[in-house]
Amino acid sequence: MYRIRFHGRGGQGIKTASQVLGTAFFLEGFEVQDAPRYGAERRGAPIFAYVRAAREAIHERGIITRPGLVIVADETLIPVPAAGVLQGVGPDTVLLINTADAPEQWKQRLQYSGPVLVVPAGTESAFVGAICSGAAARLTGVIRRESLVQAILDEIARYGEVAVRDSLEHALAAFDAMEAHAGLVAEGGRVGSTDYQPPGWIDVPREPATVSAPAIQVPATSELANTGAWRTHRPVIDYALCNRCAWVCSTLCPDSAILVDPDHTPRIDYDHCKGCLVCVAVCPPHAIRAEPESRHAEEAKP
Ligand code: SF4
Ligand code: SF4
């Protein structure tokens, strides 16, 4: 059975990438499961999706804990324990990372002995989901180019012709770029209930909280995490339309990135606005619009 996990952030097309890969497997005659996992938050939040593909009925359920391939669309997730990128990774797991660093650097950084590959495109590509699905398809060695094409047509058609064209272009380029590694991802064997290995529990002696509670030496450092770097679109307030209701956008912003001046004027903290665009959706007089981040990057150039 192929067990493949995609990790990325909301908005990178990770869920769709797993659907494309799952459909491509299905077109090759495999039994398939594909499922995304994410919480209530939207753009920028860590998400993952997984695909199982087997030549017989799949009885495994739930999150893949022993992946044969882990695809990382955003390298900043790797050190985040809650993202679980490295969960269950073993020496036979292939890591495919969207990064500007060399595979050898990652092997050293992670002290990892298994194969590490780099996603064949710039880390800034807006089509990272399509690229990951194309690369993953080739790494399995059992998905033909025409099945990948058909899977993209099946899964992306609802987003329109331009999305289909761009996805095909990027996914197929990644598929071709991975030719030298075709078949690197091996089929894992069955994991039956009798193969279950209970965790090696260790009893840790308990201490009173006054002894064991962490000491916070430097408080309030979360402000230093510049989540504004995640945005693909930024919210922009039209102050001519804003009626200074003073609470809707600032209260519903999940990152508390909208501050309110004493005169009730809202101001967006772009260092910490992750671009989820909740504020755009909830502002009653539609005073907040979304603008592509790339436009502001161009305007900021000297
Ligand atoms: S929700 Fe809209 S109207 Fe209310 S303060 Fe925010 S931008 Fe202004
Ligand atoms: S300011 Fe708007 S776009 Fe930015 S994080 Fe808050 S709700 Fe999301």
Helix-strand string = EHEEEEHEHHHHEHEEHEH
Q: What would you report as the Rg, rounded to the nearest angstrom?
A: 22 Å
Q: Specify the oligomeric state.
A: single chain
Instruction: List each distinct ligand once.
Output: iron/sulfur cluster
Strand content: 15-25%
- Put simply, the count of helices is 9
Largest sheet: 6 strands, mixed
The parts where pLDDT drops under 50 for at least 5 residues are none
- Which structural class do you get from the secondary structure elements? alpha/beta
What is the number of strand segments?
10
Give the strand order, joined by hyphens, for the main sheet.
2-3-1-4-5-6
Protein architecture, described:
The protein has nine helices and ten strands. The protein is an alpha/beta fold and 302 residues long. Helix 2 links the parallel strand 5 and strand 6. It binds iron/sulfur cluster (2 copies). The site of one iron/sulfur cluster has 14 residues, from helix 7.
